[in-house]
Design goal:
Length: 188
């Protein structure tokens, strides 16, 4: 099975370097993981890496130390053509239905905690965790996530991510996705 599409184009997600379970394939810290990854890209010369500017800015916020421009230049920072890239209406309908379901689930969680009549910090922390899981896990929940999907679709590229929600929604549009481990193997 061929993982990479047209011209070995890969759109990179921040999760590859920030998520500890994903980062371990490239390094211990965010800066080390990104640096090691870019060294492998330069040496192997097999992949052409893209990242929307919004995602690169997000990643930059996590870096412990700034990387040399000669390294970060290996990632093409290209915004998606948001006004030209089409998305099927069914995708939008499914997204709206999914969000409505999650909002209702969040409401039920809030009601459950209100009925418990517990107001301490532990109750609030538990509510926040349960609410966050109900509303954000497994969904495209940021403009950066949507930029990744749009750019991968526009470039006919493969999406590299550790975010399972992003994978699920990308696949609805026929965008292949690879895991951090698969990406590591493509570099050797």
């Amino acid at each position: 099975m061929r993982l990479i599409r047209k011209r070995n184009l890969v759109v990179l997600d921040t999760s590859l370097f920030v998520n500890p379970d994903a980062r371990k394939y490239f390094g211990r810290s965010v800066s080390e993981a990104l640096s090691n990854f870019l060294d492998a890209v330069k040496t192997g010369n097999k992949l052409i890496c893209y990242m929307p500017p919004s995602v690169f800015a997000e990643l930059s916020n996590f870096l412990e130390e700034k990387l040399a421009a000669s390294k970060t230049a290996l990632i093409k920072k290209q915004p998606p053509a948001s006004y030209q890239t089409t998305i099927p209406a069914l995708f939008v309908y499914e997204f709206i239905e999914e969000m409505r379901s999650r909002i209702n689930k969040g409401l039920r969680i809030a009601e459950k905690y209100s009925r418990k009549n517990e107001h301490g910090e532990n109750a609030i922390a538990a509510l926040r965790v349960e609410y966050r899981v109900a509303l954000r896990e497994g969904i495209v929940d940021s403009k950066e996530d949507f930029d990744l999907i749009l750019l991968a679709k526009q470039l006919n590229a493969t999406l590299a991510t550790a975010d399972q929600g992003l994978v699920m929604w990308a696949q609805k549009l026929g965008i292949p996705a690879i895991t951090p481990e698969e990406l590591k193997h493509l570099l050797v």
